[in-house]
Amino acid sequence: MQAGLAGYSDMAMRTVARRRGCPYAVTEALLDQVLLRGGRGREKGAILCDEDHPVAGQLMGSDPHELAAACKLLVTAGFDVIDLNFACPVKKVMGRSRGGYLLSDPATAIAIMRTVRDALPHTLLSIKLRRALNETPQAADWFDEVFNEALNLRFAAIAIHGRTVEQKYTGRANWDFLARLPARLSSLQPSSRPTLFGSGDVFTAADALRMYQHTGLDGIWIARGAIGNPWIFREFAALLAGQPLPLPPSVHEQKDALLEHFSLAVQIYGEELASRQMRKIAIKYSKLHPDGPTVWREFIAVKNQREWDDVLARHYTKDAAGISLPSVPDAADLCNTSCEAAAV
Fold first, then answer.
1. Is 181 exposed, middle or buried (0-12, 13-18, 19+ CB in 10 A)?
2. C-alpha of 192 from chain center
3. Is the pTM of this model over 0.85?
4. What is the DSSP secondary-structure string of 74-117?
5. CA distance 167 to 169
6. Of 60-74, 142-156, 273-287, minimum mean pLDDT range
């Protein structure tokens, strides 16, 4: 599935991914206060289109009743699932008692979950967690409280990132922890068993397959690995079916995706803002191009659609084979993506 990722996973990114095999997606984390009171234009994150289903609207907040009211707005807007974010490790989110902070305050986390369930008794609910706040036994107990309440409240899905909140985006995700989660559901009837998603260190379809096989989870939540690579979903589907890994997308296939992505972004933001928004996404696409460093440098300077079209004309007119991505991106790329997400 296409995970929620701040500053990236809007309707444009989700739709481009769906056209290339993504079956399910989540919005970036929307703030309950923005939806209830407006401001900063972030309500654009709640924009949908007919192709963008099934889709979960992901919300962050700290007050149970306000968060529940925002959830109702997303249901009215047409979202199929409501996803509660108790995972975000960004400092300013934590400082406002949102996201990953709630894994240090299980009483509030549970109050939010119960209030949302009471407000939306017939709506599919899901939750995004990290494996704990930190490595302490107390943090493990807090995780268990929240996880078990999600089971008690019949949440439809639980997605768990294999890092702690304090790790943020550093170190390796603990897939062994994820592999122990399915056993917790062994006593449940199939009708009350939530879907379990795993997340962390999935940058290629081969990574997704390794996580799937190692953990025994139901599905894989792909975040940074899908930025600029919407083909990762069809590649994973092929590997799951026992087929060879498809060839990387050709230059012309990349061009088609870039044109679609930009056009959809313009629908959401208008040309000027879309041009800025698409720069950070286009440089991820450029990693698949045979002349990636040159394309990267030109995309990062784009300011409007004319300049965007000029880059495509120079580098995407002649078809050629695409480049395979490495399993683990370089450290600078990971840092840049994490900082972009934190800044949004």
1. middle
2. 25
3. yes
4. HHHHT-SEEEEEE----HHHHTTT-GGGGGG-HHHHHHHHHHHH
5. 6
6. 273-287
List the chain domain ranges.
11-240, 251-315
Q: How far apart are the first and last CA of the chain?
A: 22
Strands 124-130 and 157-161: parallel
Token readout for 241 is 């079916």
At 46, list the tokens. 């709640």
71-107 pLDDT, tens digit per residue, is 999 999 999 999 999 999 999 999 999 999 999 999 9
154 Cβ contact list (under 8 Å, min separation 6): 117, 192, 194
Q: What pLDDT is stored for residue 42 in this prediction? A: 54
Exposure string over 129-147, b if 16+ CB within 10 A, otherwise e: bbbbbeeeeebeebbeebb
| Cis before 293? omega within 30 | no
Query: In CATH, which of 3.30.360.10, 3.40.50.150, 3.40.50.300, 3.20.20.70 is domain 11-240?
Result: 3.20.20.70
Q: Which of 314, 312, 315 lies closest to 292, judged by CA?
A: 315
Supply the pLDDT for residue 343: 29
C-alpha to C-alpha distance for 67 and 73, rounded to whole angstroms? 10
- Distances, alpha carbon 218 to alpha carbons 82, 143, 211, in Å: 19, 20, 10
Phi then psi for 83, rounded to 5 degrees?
-115, 125
Phi-psi region of 48 (alpha: psi -120 to 50; beta: other; left: phi over 0): beta
Distance, CA of 172 to chain centre = 18
Residues 163, 200: contact at Cβ < 8 Å?
yes
Q: Distance between CA atoms of 271 and 196, rounded to whole angstroms? A: 39
Q: Looking at the chain, which runs of residues are DSSP E strands?
A: 25-26, 30-31, 55-60, 81-86, 124-130, 157-161, 195-199, 219-220
Give dist(CA 48, CA 11) in Å, integer: 6
Looking up tokens 């600078």, which residue turns up? 332
